[in-house]
Design goal:
The complex is a heterodimer of chains A (295) and B (226).
Chain A (H helix, E strand, L loop, with lengths): L3 E13 L2 E12 L3 E5 L6 H9 L6 E6 L2 E5 L4 E2 L7 E4 L11 H8 L5 H10 L15 H13 L5 E5 L7 H18 L2 E6 L2 H7 L2 E6 L2 E6 L1 H4 L8 E12 L2 E6 L2 E6 L2 H4 L7 E7 L10 H4 L1
Parallel strand pairs in A: 3-9, 3-10, 7-8, 8-9
Antiparallel strand pairs in A: 1-2, 1-4, 4-5, 5-6, 10-11, 12-13, 12-15, 13-14
Helix pairs in contact in A: 2-4, 4-5
Chain B lengths: L2 H34 L5 H13 L2 H12 L4 H9 L8 H26 L2 H9 L4 H9 L4 H16 L3 H7 L9 H10 L3 H34 L1
Helix pairs in contact in B: 1-5, 1-8, 2-5, 3-9, 5-8, 5-9, 6-7, 8-11, 10-11
Classes of the chains: A alpha/beta (295), B mainly alpha (226).
């Protein structure tokens, strides 16, 4: 068993869609792991990250990181966010509008080590954008800067709050890969909040499913999402663009596909209807995407 | 144009500059507190700051005049320990105009702070930066238009102040007579020519200040949109 880095048990009253709920969470996170907190929006995932960061105070409980106690309600210990060695990537990135890419990294790094900053610029493909301010960056570039800035302080723990939710699918895939790479390179124990099963599968070693203020399930992503979530069918949602005889023209994930259909089943479909397309997952044709296709 | 004319304007500008500088320094911490503190009774402070917007200047002037009198502790304190007589003196009208302009400075800066995403402050904290570093390196540089609006409004409003200064300053030439009072005074003395000179200067000055604020803020908004 790897060494446990974060050991935490906190309680906090939160306002959810169902009224006031008590968030009561117990986590033990091994060092260097990448762990996901999974759950619907509003269940308190973000609150939990903020509690670990020290930005929100829990009502009671404790947070231990290595040998340090960051929070303990019985001993009235509450270490300030500044003194917790963390990196936090906010959902809105929280980039400073007044600073250029490089200035943000310099601001964040405590030792001002230029070699480390240029490594970050390299890894996150920001080198050519050094002197740009955030408003001149694309969504993906802003996201990279947010992660790079969070790592500039060489944090023990990296907290990511739905870091990819605002991006389009292609940029997401690329950045998922980069987050994994950064996690390996910089060896920060990483805690990621997500409500996207894809993301959880691709990225995490371990997943905690949060619901009704509790941890409902935990384990490796493959074990946690049971057969009701993992299907042997491939399902796609599409929109009908055009119907001609027994041929449907459908838009699926921004790709136009033609589907041949028995005419009697087409009768009750019309243009702009949303349809669920199911195909058996046994022996599908699979091929790895080339880099050009990914871009 | 004579010496009295320039002297009067000089007092106006001196008063407005000092008021603006002092309020700028005091306004930032007050606005910060009003924006970010979770202190329950801060609404009371908020109300006090905004009082001069609704209170007739004569009411404020009347109470300040009472407070400035050496018979009360405030005036007595200044008189005994600092050797300053506040009633009918320049330090007196300075204090009056600082209080009277509080909302123009504080509300502008406060609007700036509250329009910033809270995550900027949080992000700076998680990067290990203290509250002061966060204020000076992250928050203030990102609310420059609000700071500029606060400074310009305060300066221009002090130049145009009338009621409070008349009540506590007493319109003494060379000491507490400012341009806005001089207009009134010259009209009373039927010197319409002189009154017109003061008035035209004040009119143009106010207009130029407002055009400046709006053009700078417009440039900033344009820049921000891209």
């Amino acid at each position: 068993m790897e060494e446990v880095l974060i050991d935490l048990h906190v309680r906090k009253k939160i306002h959810t869609n169902n009224g006031i709920e008590v968030l009561d969470i117990h986590l033990r996170i091994p060092q260097y792991d990448l762990v996901t907190l999974f759950g619907k929006s509003g269940v308190g995932k973000t609150t939990l990250l903020r509690i670990i960061a020290g930005l929100t105070q829990p009502d009671s409980g404790y947070i231990k990181v290595g040998d340090e106690i960051w929070y303990d309600s019985t001993q009235a210990i509450n270490v300030k966010p500044q003194q917790r060695n963390i990196g936090f990537v906010f959902q809105d990135y929280a980039l400073f509008p007044n600073m250029t890419v490089k200035e943000q990294l310099l601001y964040a790094s405590s030792q001002k080590e230029t070699w480390y900053i240029s490594e970050l610029l390299d890894v996150f493909h920001l080198k050519g954008l050094c002197n740009r301010k955030p408003e001149k960056l694309s969504g993906g570039q802003q996201q990279r800067l947010a992660v790079a800035r969070a790592l500039a302080r060489k944090p023990q723990i990296l907290l990511l709050d739905e870091p990819l939710s605002a991006l389009d699918t292609e940029t997401r895939y690329m950045l998922q890969h980069e987050i994994l790479q950064a996690h390996k390179n910089f060896q920060a124990t990483t805690l990621l909040v997500s409500h996207d099963i894809d993301e959880v599968y691709t990225l995490s070693d371990f997943v905690y499913v949060i619901g009704n203020g509790k941890i409902k399930k935990q384990g490796k992503p493959g074990d946690v999402f049971d057969s009701t979530k993992i299907k042997t069918d491939i399902q796609l949602v599409g929109v009908i663009l055009y119907i001609e005889n027994n041929i449907l023209t459908v838009s699926v994930n921004n790709t136009i596909t033609k589907i041949i259909f028995p005419i009697e089943e087409i009768e009750n479909l019309k243009i702009n209807d949303k349809i669920l397309i199911t195909a058996k997952a046994t022996h599908p044709v699979i091929r790895k995407l080339t880099n050009e296709e990914l871009l | 144009m004579n010496e009295a004319f320039f002297q009067t304007f000089w007092i106006s500008i001196k008063l407005a500059s000092l008021t603006t500088i002092i309020l700028f320094c005091a306004g930032i911490p007050i606005a910060y507190f009003l924006t970010y503190s979770s202190f329950r009774l801060k609404v009371i402070l908020q109300a006090f700051v905004s009082m001069p917007l609704v209170l007739p200047p004569s009411v404020l002037g009347f109470y300040l005049l009472l407070a400035f009198s050496p018979n009360y502790w405030f005036g007595n304190f200044f008189n005994q320990y600092l050797g300053i007589r506040l009633a009918f003196s320049f330090p007196g009208i300075l204090i009056g105009s600082i209080i009277f302009n509080l909302p123009f400075m504080v509300n502008s800066i406060q609007t700036g702070f509250s329009n910033l995403p809270v995550s900027l402050k949080d992000a700076s904290y998680t990067l290990g930066k203290s509250r002061l570093t966060t204020i000076f390196r992250v928050l203030l540089p990102n609310i420059k238009p609000a700071l500029l609006t606060g400074v310009c409004l305060t300066f221009a409003h002090t130049i145009g102040e009338f009621g409070v200064i008349l009540m506590i300053g007493g319109n003494i030439p060379g000491k507490t007579r400012v341009a806005s009072l001089a207009v009134y005074d010259e009209v009373q003395a039927l010197n319409f020519d002189m009154a017109n000179k003061y008035a035209i200067f004040l009119f143009l000055f106010s207009f130029v200040v407002l055009v400046f604020i709006y053009s700078v803020n417009r440039e900033y908004l344009k820049w921000k949109r891209f």
